[in-house]
Amino acid sequence: MLTAGFTGCQKLNLNPENWLNPASLRSQSPDEDETSLTEEFETEVKVETPFIGEYTQITGKNLIALQGVGLITGLNGTGGNPPPSVHREALLREMRRRNVKNPNHILRSPSTALVIVKAYLPPLIRKGETFDVEVYLPGNSEATSLEGGWLMESYLAEQAMIQGRGLLKGHILAKAQGPILIPPMSEEDRKKGTAGILRRGRILSGGISVAEDRDLALYLRNDFKSIRNAQRIANRIGGRFHHFDKYGIEEPLAEAKTDKKVVLKLKPRYKHNDSRYLQVVRNIAFRETDVAQRVRMQKLTEEIMIPEKAERASIQLEAIGKKSIPILKAALKSPLLEVRFHAAVALAYLDDGSGLKALAEAAREEPAFRVYALAAMSAIDEPEAHMYLRDLMSMTSAETRYGAFRALWTLDKNDPFIRGEDMNGQFLLHVLETELETVVDHDPDAKEGNPKNGGPMIHITHRKHPEVVLFGSKQEFRVPIAVRAGEVLITGAPGTEEITVSKYKVGEPDQRKRVPKNIAVVIRTAVEMGASYPDIAQMILQAHQQGNVDGQVEIDALPEGGRMYYRPTEEDALMALKSGTMKSNKPKRKKGARIGNQNVVPNIFHSGGPQEKTSKKSKYDLDEDENGKASLADYRKSKSSDDDDDDKFIKQTTFQSLFRYFKK
């Protein structure tokens, strides 16, 4: 019996000598031996996590060039009969198709002109959404100016000039119409006869897409394409990003169409910053176990506190999802503005408003962070976001004020503070009572002796959104004044408290009205008499050039991407702490990084057209002897903190991280 029992124990591997052998505790599958288990464990720990961006390329971000031919009407004798050309023949065919009588007689009129219409269909545009359109006179045109003109409805399509076949058209993707906005000109330029400027113009939001919705797509590498891999990528993206249909059923935002193509839909939270969305998608792990993810998160916890690695770490944490929120919140306590900024941006797109204070600080203090901070604030629909953006509209910097306005308008168009008035369906008039706002505590762009808030300002746009924004509801015109808003005349004698707005046109009854000098009241009255947005914009610029406006006048004062941020250096901080200034005769060592890309900015601050390939130097890119106030403040905070030590970063190996995780 003893012999049989001992033999049975050996067969069942119950020998006490083998109890402490780790190999005896695992499965006896023939496909798995001790060597393979060790290799698999080491692979999960030591090899870097593969991301979706390593195996795919993104398409659908390109602009589609559109072109057409159109007819401008309403010109004040500056039109002309277009000479024979392919464009004239195309316009005549279109006019006959629409049953227009005597088309040649219309083209000969001095109040009409043939124009070439160009536009770029933006990426991710939905059917029915609008975009800007450009018009210009052909080189051999007899017309001299497009000022005051209106583009009749015209169709835009892809076109190509094929040798031997002439101009070929593709499918019609958009249509366009609206008033022509001429670039601003001074009276001196008009007297010099700058005909080139008057021969071209822009129609803000004049194009309407009639094509199908444009979506993004991921294409797998040729050496990686397969149905299985495409489905795995779609599942990984769908697990991170999804939405609910009208029946409340969860739907993933990625779908595998072929062995190479995955269609990607945009998450609504990223609608106004699709570039950030694509960055996050590319940083979703393609293959990762729960243990490996926890190890990577521990590593990212350390990396996000390092300025040079904070941006990449924040994007990867954002790609992981809600699990990363505690890590990002901890990074908000860093004494370095750069670290706080990147953590706050990631939190904003994770629908967490904990970083709003850091975003407002970044937008106010550091121009390099401004455009991305404001875009992130526009993604958080919380009362605190509204309050911070209102405060930023009282700053001195024009781009900070208008950038904050654009962010709040994107967040909530019906916010009582910025709600616009519809001006005959052509543009919006926003009158902001910034003079009633609380004076900001700190304004880095303010100068000594000037008021702490920004004061009165008028902002007009020449791209995307036709609007006039008055920062200060009590702004008035100075008298004497004599300016025009198209056919509307605005005059005021010296010492008077009222301004006369009048319009005299042949065949129409005379219009004349006396109104207060308030700029908003004058604009409303001029629009009632038929003034268009281009007329109002030209009136404001003319009044500014003549000295009839007290405040500053800005055009498209948008924050930019791709600016340099100069990190604090020890030499600068020590000198500043001793002398109170950052100026020195000795050359300083620069330690800077370019934040983002000038050609890739959030949609709410994008011009809508193709960008320059070479980035120009911004006025905020400092010289060798200037490092910026925000950097100095960061360094002072970092030296006064007892909890953080930014001069010492311990880079742990993967094994140490894993050991600490299991020990915990």
TrEMBL record:
GO BP field: bacterial-type flagellum-dependent cell motility
Listed Gene3D superfamilies: Leucine-rich Repeat Variant
GO molecular-function terms, A-Z: structural molecule activity
Major site of localization recorded for this protein: other
Transmembrane annotation, as ranges: none
One cellular component term from this protein's GO annotations in UniProt: outer membrane-bounded periplasmic space
Keywords noted in UniProt: Bacterial flagellum, Cell projection, Cilium, Flagellum, Signal
Compartments it resides in: Bacterial flagellum basal body
Chain spans, region Disordered: 579-648
Pfam families (UniProt xref): FlgI
Function per UniProt: Assembles around the rod to form the L-ring and probably protects the motor/basal body from shearing forces during rotation.
Protein name stated in the entry: Flagellar P-ring protein
